[in-house]
Amino acid sequence: MSYEVLARKWRPQLFQDVIGQEHITQTLINAIKGGRIAHAYLFAGPRGVGKTSVARILAKAMNCQNGEPGIPCNKCRSCIDITDGSSVDVQEIDGASNRGIDEIRELRENIRYMPSSSRYRIYIIDEVHMLTLPAFNALLKTLEEPPAHVKFIFATTESHKVPITILSRCQRFDFKRIPTAQIISHLGKISQEEGIAISKSGLALIAGEAEGGMRDAESLLDQVVSYAGLQIEDRHIAEILGIIDRDLIFETCRAIIEGSPKECLKLIDKVYNYGYNIREYYNTLMEQFRNLMVSLITQEDHLLNMNEIDIKETRRIAQKAGFEKIQVLLNFMITREEDLRFSFCPRLILETTMIKMCYLGELLSFDDLLKKIESLEKRLIGASHSHALPESAQISDPTAPWKLEDREKGQAEVEIISKTDNDWNDFLNYLAGKNKLMFNILKDWKFLSLDEKVLKISKGNQSFSSKYFDDQERYNQISGYCRDFFKSDIKIKIVVNNQPHSETWKEPVKKKQYLRHKTDKNFPPPVQDIIQMFQGKLLEGDSATK
Length: 546
Ligand SMILES: Nc1ncnc2c1ncn2[C@@H]1O[C@H](COP(=O)(O)OP(=O)(O)OP(=O)(O)O)[C@@H](O)[C@H]1O
Ligand SMILES: [Mg+2]
Ligand SMILES: [Zn+2]
Known about the structure:
- This protein has 546 residues and is an alpha/beta fold.
- The protein is 52% helix and 8% strand.
- The strands form 2 sheets. The chain has a 5-stranded parallel sheet with strand order 2-3-4-1-5, with helices on one face.
- α3 (51-63) runs antiparallel to α4, α14 (278-297) runs antiparallel to α16 and α18 (366-383) runs antiparallel to α23.
- Bound molecules: adenosine-5'-triphosphate, magnesium ion and zinc ion.
C-alpha cells in the first residue's frame, strides 16, 4: 500500500473537523441552513490553514444529496467525487497555471451549461491573485451576473493582489493562523491514531516551527517519522529541524540574568560545536526573552507557545529577574539583532552582546534599588520630626536611559504648561551647532517641562526616532550637551506620548545662563546618606535648608 502523507490523509472532511477557523465554518453552516448562500466567496489567509479544505467541504455541503444542511454526508456520489477531485460539477482550477484570458473565456463558456447531476456548478479557483488583468476583467463580467446554478470559491494567500472590483463582488473570509496549543493537540491526536510515540514537548517543538500552519506541522511530523521511525525522542526533532535545544536556551537565559559572562562564553562554544546556526540561536534566545516578559504580564499560557514544563520554568526565571531587567535585556537584544544578521563574524557579535547583557543585568537590579529607597524612606520618616525631606535631593538613577515613564499606560503627560519653552528652543539652537542629527530628531519631539533638576520631553511618533535615545551612548551624549548648555546636571526624562504634537522647535529668542550649582552640607544625615548611596548631587533644597 502506498504511503499517504499525513497532511492529505488528515484533510478535514466536515466543517467541525476544521481547527481554529470556527468564525468561518459557523458562518457558512448558518448560511447554508438559512438558504443564504452567496454566489462568490473569497477565502484569504496564510498557507496551510484550511482554505482549500473548507472550500471543498462547502462545495460538498452545497451539493450533497443526503446529509443535514451544513453537514455533507461524505457518502453520496457527489461527496465522494468531490473528495476524489473527480467531480464534473465541482472544478478546482489552479490560478497559477491557468492565469490567462483564454482559460477564463473557456470557463465562461462552460458555466452556461446546467450541472450534470448536482444542484450547483462550483468553481474553486486557488491562488486567484495569479490571474492576469484581462483574465480578471473577463471574470468580472461573470461575477456581475452569474447564473443561479453557478457558485465561485476563490482562495488566495495574497488578497491584496486581487483587484478591488473582484473583492467587492465576493463574500470574504479571512483565515487565521492556528494557535500553537491547537496544533499541539491536533498533532497529539494524529500521533495517537497513527501509532507514533512522541512527547508533548516534542509536539510543541514541531508546532512552534509551523508558525500557525497545520499543513506545515503535519509535514514536519512526517519528516520526523521518516527520520526516526515511530519512536520519536525530542533530540531527534531538534536534530532534524535544526531547532535549538530548549535546555540550552534556558541555560543561556539563566547565565545572562545571573550575570555570568564566563558561563555565556562556554554556552556559545557549545552552540558552535553543535553546529547550530548562530543567528537562529540568537533569534530563539530573543524569543525566549519575549516569553519571559510576556509571562510577567499575563497568566494566559497560550501566549507563550510552549509546553507546561517549559512554561513553569519560564515563569520561575522571569519572577526571579523582574520585569525591568528583562525588558532592558530584550530591548538591547533587539538593537543588536541587525548587527548580528549582517555580520561576517556572528560569533564575535554574539559573544560581545551576551557579555554586555551580563553587565546590563547587573547594573539594572532595579528592584534592589527600589528596596533601598524604601528602607531609606522609612528611616527618613523616623528622622523627619525635626527635618523635612528636601524635594530636590536628586537621585542618579542608573536605569534612567531606559526608564520610559507611563510606558505601560501609554499615557501622555502633556498637561504641564511650562514657562521655559524659550530655554528649550535655545538649547535646540545650541544643539543644531553641535549635533545635526540629534537636533533633527529632537526638534520634532515635544517639550514638556524644564526645571532645575529635570528636563521632560516626549518621544516623536516615528519608530526610528522614537528609539534613538534607547541607546545608552546617545543618551549620555545628549546629557552631556544638556550639562554644557544649562551648566547644571539635568536629568532627562523621556516619556511616551501618543498624542499628536502641537509644538515644535521655534527660532531662538535669547540665550541665557541657566542654574547655579548649589551645595549645602547642612542637610539631615539620612539625606546625606541618599546622596552618597546613589552618588547624586543636591541641586536645590529650599524647603530643607530653612
Ligand atoms: N484548519 C485546519 N484544521 C485541520 N487541518 C488542517 C487545517 N488547515 C490545514 N490543515 C491540514 O493541512 C492540509 C492542507 O490544508 P489546505 O489545503 O486546506 O490549506 P490551504 O489553506 O488551502 O493552503 P494553501 O494556501 O497552501 O493552498 C489539510 O489537508 C489538513 O491536513
Ligand atoms: Mg489551498
Ligand atoms: Zn453527500
